Task: structure prediction
Amino acid sequence: MEAQKPAAKAKQPSAKNNAPGIKNAAWVIIICACIAVCLFIFWFGNDMHFDEDGHPQNLWGTIYKGGFIVPVLQTLFLTVIVLAVERYIALNSAKGKGNIAKFVAGVKACLEKNDIAGARALCAKQKGSVAAVVDSALIRYAEMDQNTTLSKEQKIANLQKQVEEATALEMPTLQQNLPILATMTTLGTLVGLLGTVMGMIKSFQALSQSGAPDSTELSTGISEALINTAFGIATGAFAVIFYNYYTNKIDNLTYAIDEIGFSIVQTFAATH
Result:
């Protein structure tokens, strides 16, 4: 007698990851470091920015006088800018094509009429992470609607689990690279402070020499301190602004997912 093949498990609906982005930020930092070093050597340190005595003639030469800390700070600053642009593109893609508030209202209106096909059509039109989570929940909604073996409580629990799993799949990608921006808020300021202290040490060394102080060494130390302070503050400020802005955008997307997920579960509970 031929052995029976075990029945294949039904494929569980899952949300496709819809938030593109840079997966390995280490390459961003390396590339930004290369750009910063090249700028420091070949542009800021170019002879045309200095007079015959080596004094800077413009802002670029003054930045070069900031010392070796300058390319480090420029690396951090460029990394913040690149990751901010990357997060902007990724979160816009995750949001989808249309207005999130209108999409949420449209799906809720379809659910009130028990129009699952219409709600899925809205998801296909909207695209993005929110639509992907909602669509996976609607697929499970249709499956539970046709299921005759599970109790109502089990069906509701399955719906809630599907929304949670789909949301958990999307959240890591939405928050990707934000910890690096958070780190830059402190790191940029600290490295800038380090450069400031080193510049002030040079200045005091020039003042401590016997006789008239070396004006060149004194100006170099002051330039190093001020340039590094400026870069450090700029890096920290931009990182804080971008981090808070994108964190707020992610919270709005999460709220939209939670709102529709709750509506799907409540609609199923009320109509079954």
